[in-house]
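Hi R.,

As promised, here are both runs. First protein below:
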Amino acid sequence: MKVMNLKHIKIAVFIIPILLFLAACSPEKSIKTINAKKTPQVTGVEVIRPVSDQPDYVLDLPGELQPFEQVDLFPKVKGFVKEILVDRGSRVKKGQLLVLLEAPEVSQKYFSEKSAENKYYEDYLYSRQSYERFKKAASKSGSVAEIELDKARSKFKSDSAAYASAKANTGISAQNQQYLRITAPFDGVVVDRNVSNGALVGENAQMPLITMVQTKHLRLTVAIPEKHSQSLSNSAKVSFTVSNLPGKVFESKLSRKSDFVKQASRAINAEFDVPNTENELSGGDYARVKLTLRRPYQSLWLPIGSIIRSQSGIFVNKVNNGKIERIEVKTGNQKGDLQEVFGALGAEDQIVKVGSEELTEGSNVSIKK
């Protein structure tokens, strides 16, 4: 009997684990396991809505102070420099004589043209008087032949045209004489003098006699990057500093802009007029500019933490019918903890507050209250 009991025990030890394994693999438990695997995992997330705003923002850019007017003065006619009445640094008034040239042939030509004008004028007077006499005599029938009247009329018109031509030539010579006097086109300062007395100058000179600029008003020129060009309003204000006057802040407002993006710089040029009656500023200085801009329309803003930046791009997670939808966006300006975004977003969209790459496209989520 003992032998039989021991044998039964050995069989039981072998069979019981097999029965337990079969029970574990029963159809009911297998179905439950499959259903558990099929049940999607739901993640709870906090959501926010984009903020629609149109704030001012400040852009820090380099600028250049340029003279309001600048001109290189070249000689119009060929001649010798008789006298230079100014030098580098001279402050001059509009119309002031700067350089006096001499060219005897120009004066002689004027006198020649003037003499020719006087001759043609006398011929013109005589022809006019003759024509008027013939015309008066022709009023009586048979006194003057019609052909004689036509000849007098033709001579009068011919001499009249010759006098007008001579008068025009005299005017040209007179104007050439005026070109021997080079005057200041505006109030300003001489910055360059490139010739001396006695130098021969001509019509095709490569170097100007004098360069002068106007400094009582300056132009602050700023290149506005393309992506900010639409934010530059006609009432935009600017403040700037220059290195040679540390601590001094100057202000101005927009005077003009090009409204055309230059291909080389991908920017538009904006100009701000700067009064400089005390000559504090020098034309040609570089300036550090702070420009106040504002977009012409409202844009959407999100917390920086909700924006995901990865190698595949910049995007946010939008909750749409309980699933994650990745929206690619472009970023603009930053204001505190908020980032301006552009993309297929609306002010009513629900955006995951804390962006995470673990939330993939199509992930099931529930919104935390």
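And here is the second one, sequence first, then its structure tokens:
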Amino acid sequence: MRSVKVSVVIPAFNAGRWVARAIDSVLAQDWPNVEVIVVNDGSTDNTDEVCRSYGERIRYVRQENAGVSAARNRGIELAEGQLIAFLDADDQFLPSMVSTLVRALENFPEAGAASGAHFLRTGDSLVRVPPEGRVLPPGVKIGVVHDFFRVYAKWSIAWTGSVLVKKEVFDKVGLFRPDLRLGEDIEMWSRIAGRFPWVFVDEPVAVYNRNPESSVTMRSRLSFDFSFIYDEDEMRKQVREELWVGYRVFRREQILMRCRYLLKYGATGEVRAALRRISPAPPTFEWLMINVLSFFPPWMAKTVAYSVINLKRIKRRLLR
């Protein structure tokens, strides 16, 4: 398996401040056969200069700005490896990322993709996601996640920088959707997990550096677009029947999470529209609370939402 070639696709948009760190983390992998593909998505800063300084150590292409999905798709099309990983230009791999996930796919050849845990860095804070021992049975470090969507609803087990996919899988499920400006990665993992077994490794393989702005595309922080979440008809086309119950849980949690975010901005009308996408039967406590808040005046909904968030922060600090 050490002869297996792995292609790592790095889309970069105005990422001159960070892209060298991302590239270096891939070049430092302990796997001997790794290809680095950087797709400059129409940057206007010094991204081009930084990438060209690596010479033949990386494959570098530049395109007109078309968004992160188009950049990743360009990388997939150029990739020579049998396995493909993705890394945003402001994030980084840990040295054993590739070798860990290659061996995971070797142990479970029926799987279409594998992922590991990651560290979330916010300022000086570094948090492991998900916490150790929460996804697989006690004592198990690697295994197939049988109820993928129910687990994904609770724990972030498929963050973009911690995923390795068999290239042949894209021939069957298609490429990233360029029409999506939000959740394009979540939609892709849903397509893959909907058709293939998914392997999880309970050890960190990458670092997600949470920056105030995206390194790939400048998005509005406030978006009402839920197109990346399948409705019932789409779910039945994309997801195996045995995963439908779990997907409905996943869909509900994704929408509720974004409703909480929308309430912070007083977007009560958008919250009511979003809640209509999920069934209230049986209604959860959170669904009921969000539904009630969505009928408050916007300023009041914002005040309550921020109060709840602050209380949760205080609780987390006390429990440390």
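A quick note on the second one: The two ends are 42 Å apart (CA to CA). Let me know what you think.

Best,
J.
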